[in-house]
Amino acid sequence: MASLTGISVGFLGLGDVGRPVLRRLKACGANVHATSRSPALRYKMARDAVNLYKAPSEVNDQVKDGIIFLMLSKQGLIDAFLNGPDGLLSNLASSALIVDLGQTSLDATQKYAKIVEASGAHWMDAPAIGSEQDAMEGRLSIRVGGRKEDFDRARPLLEAIGRDIKHMGEIGSGQAAVPTT
């Protein structure tokens, strides 16, 4: 695994695949800042010495202009983490990059990209396909949609969690390249 020492990363979505992805980033040296609305998950992740916060805005405070990964299974969860007084959009740095690792509809992906870009930050769709075991072993397949410079910026982090990584083109092309579940 390549070293990610000194890189601050935000992470939202501590489900079955999200937790091992977060652990891999941390094992590579990234300074990971996460949040979960579930007290039980916060407890589990605290045992892994992950920096945990109660609200997405607190993750922004730590990551500032870094990269924030979303690994959420439902559009309603993305809405909840982005919006509201303590959501990501409340204090998102203008040079931050949000990378959606979940399988999100094309319409929602384009909507979120416009909202984030209106704040001066950037959005990249990068659905990560694979099992919990694939995540633990860093062999997820990832198809990326977004600006080439954002892809280049996120690539070292993506390489820590995946083996089959391809930049497909503009926003939404990552989502369009994976089969719907």
From TrEMBL:
Name of this chain's protein: NAD(P)-dependent oxidoreductase
Organism encoding this protein: Sneathiella sedimenti
Coiled coil location: none
Transmembrane residue ranges: none
Family annotation (Pfam families): NAD_binding_2 (PF03446)
UniProt domain 6-phosphogluconate dehydrogenase NADP-binding: residue ranges: 9-169
InterPro entries: 6PGDH_NADP-bd, NAD(P)-bd_dom_sf
Gene3D superfamilies named among the record's database cross-references: NAD(P)-binding Rossmann-like Domain
PANTHER family named in the record: 3-HYDROXYISOBUTYRATE DEHYDROGENASE-LIKE 1, MITOCHONDRIAL-RELATED (PTHR43060)
Phylogenetic classification of the source organism: Bacteria, Pseudomonadati, Pseudomonadota, Alphaproteobacteria, Sneathiellales
